[in-house]
Amino acid sequence: MWLPCGCTSKYVASSFARRTLASYLHVSGRSRCNVAAFMPEAAGLEGVSGRAALRELSVSNSESFWAAVARHRLCWSTPFHTVQDCDLSRGKIKWFEGGKLNVSVNCLDRHVHTCPERVALIWERDERGSEMKYTYGELLEMTCRLGNLLRRHGVKRGDCVTIYMPTCPLAVASMLACARIGAAHNVVFAGFSADALAERIRDAQSSTVITVNQGVRGGKVTELKKTVDTAMQSCPTVKQVFVAMRTDNPVTMTARDIAMEEEMLKEDVVCEPAVMNSEDVLFLLYTSGSTGKPKGLVHTQAGYLLYAALTHRYVFSYHDGDVFGCVADIGWITGHSYVVYGPLANGATTVLFESTPIYPDPGRYWDMVERLKINQFYGAPTAIRLLLKYGDQWVNKYDRSTLKTLGSVGEPINTEAWEWYHRVVGDGRCPVVDTWWQTETGGICIAPRPSDPDAEIVPGMAMRPFFGINPVLMDTEGEVLTSNNTSGALCMAQPWPGMARTIHNNHQRFIDTYFQPYPGYFFTGDGAYRSEEGYYQITGRLDDVINVSGHRIGTAEIEDVVNQCPAVAESAVVGYTHSIKGQGVYAFVVLKKGIDVQEADLSRQLNGMVSEKIAKYASPDFIQFAKRLPKTRSGKIMRRVLRKVVESDLEGLGDLSTLDDPAAVQEIIQDINISA
Ligand code: WT7
């Protein structure tokens, strides 16, 4: 039945040098291509004469566009009868209803059928030079054994399995095994603390967890199984924990624990795929919001996979046989869409990067590019900024001639980092694609689209909406800004297949967060600038979410932990500009009356608490003890003012007349800890 089948606003655009992609690629003259050759998925669409027209049609007649690509790109066991059924005002999003398919079949079986020996995964282990390759045939076998094992242990269609593992082949096989048997996965980044893990397991109502004995990253061993054990103390509903062995060191096994590899060996290598509906849940992924606890965004089967696959192919100019190197951790959406689902759906060879950019030295990435012959490299600005400081020699040592496209994701890329990435890493030869998207969007929404060889790229700008994406900017009154050379709140006027469908167990929060601020539109939470030419540049979050080394964190979550300290009366956390991390965490803390403590000791304690309750990256870089915080007369902390203070933007403080006592601001300014 299954086979075969078919930055910030400071960086204004006008000051940037302009280059055209044609000059990078030496392919000018191919501009008037025929659509079928460029995008075979769209070959059946009538009356489309070029890429610009195709992009037009993908928005004006998005149903025809998405129907054509969904038929071409995915392998269905039953065709869909309805392309879309969406109503953004109610947060209702459904794509390809009636269609049935299995995501693991789309990512594995169909490639095994045509080329079983093609390498699916290259595991770039922490230990340099010890990479391991897995063919599509091998990955399918691992996935099937695991799928059978999970089934034998009672995991059913619709259950949710939490995966707490570093980026490794068994983690990918675990995700795909869930997809194979119709269970949802909930990958929790292995850098999260026991408390953060437990909270996500409870919210997801997972009764099964998959982990490893220990993790290895940057030469350091982390005790992941022990962290799971700690989390289990507050997760009574977990029945079983599968433990894979990343190192040779044994760990204490309890009655709940199952030795994963040993048990996998007993399983059959054939595992019947579950027949899934397009809108069944594929995974939950928790991310931070501006208020409240992290939310479990829900992505479903067909639309998500299609969008990940299409963006992977066209944003990065991926071609069959290319080696795709996205260095993100599978614990984030980038890892889901561009390490696992997008590349595997396209039959690519995808790299699993387990290490850090500077281990054992700052040449790690480029040594890897040479060794694995990587064609597309996709990383975060924070790492680029860090490596830039170590100097060009670490890049120049290695042969990077295989590189064709360089991608950037997670936060704005400043011009200096962009230029260095382009000039040094890419030898001035490879287009740099700054890709804007979010956990909520499922895949890249705004990017330069290098598949169009004539496309101009402006450094530091995300540039153009992808096929089917219809961005709009809103003013403070909630009106659409129609002119160019303007800034506003970035919203999407149309649904697309990759977008999240709901927040697990809280559809109302989904509506309130994304659809209620601008009724009829999806609100991203980001601000953007649209240039005279109509290009987009992301200017940063409009809410209390900050971005530390590409990791998203709500300031309220950090305040919550700080406020749990018995000595603390109240606190306010804001982000400030950090030269490597993009943003750092700055906490203002007011102690309870009569508390007599050494500030340094308390700072250490608070840092420890945040690392323990959330993760290390959320720990404040600066803690300033203040007598009081600037508040409005109604008692609301003025975070806007605090943000300006830590940015040393005293002129931008704005109207302080609504403050209860303006002197509070002066006190804080005097004691500020950083020269930002
Ligand atoms: C937030 C989403 C997208 C996968 C990784 C992060 C910021 C993301 C860019 C970019 C400027 C960016 C936004 C967005 N962001 N990419 N190219 N330029 N800002 O996913 O954890 O869901 O975070 O990251 O603020 O809202 P995420």
Explain what you see.
- Keywords: ATP-binding, Ligase, Lipid metabolism, Nucleotide-binding.
- It is an enzyme of class 6 (ligase).
- The protein is an alpha/beta fold and 676 residues long.
- Helices cover 31% and strands 23% of the residues.
- It contains 21 helices and 35 strands.
- The strands form ten sheets. It has an eight-stranded mixed sheet, with helices on both faces. Strands 6-5-18-17-19-20-21 form a seven-stranded mixed sheet, sandwiched between helices.
- A hairpin with a 3-residue loop joins strand 33 and strand 34.
- The N terminus is likely disordered.
- The structure holds 5'-O-[(S)-butoxy(hydroxy)phosphoryl]adenosine.
- The site of 5'-O-[(S)-butoxy(hydroxy)phosphoryl]adenosine has 22 residues, from helix 12, strand 21, strand 29 and strand 30.
The number of E-state strands comes to: 35
**What is the first-to-last residue Cα distance?**
61 Å
How many H/I helical runs?
Answer: 21
Q: List bound small molecules.
A: 5'-O-[(S)-butoxy(hydroxy)phosphoryl]adenosine
Sheet with most strands = 8 strands, mixed
Strand order within the widest sheet? 13-12-9-7-8-15-16-28
The best one-word shape is: globular
Integer-rounded radius of gyration: 25 Å
Average pLDDT, all residues? 92
Low-confidence stretches: 1-32
Beta-strand percentage range = 15-25%
Q: Which class best fits the helix and strand makeup?
A: alpha/beta
Level of helix content? 25-40%
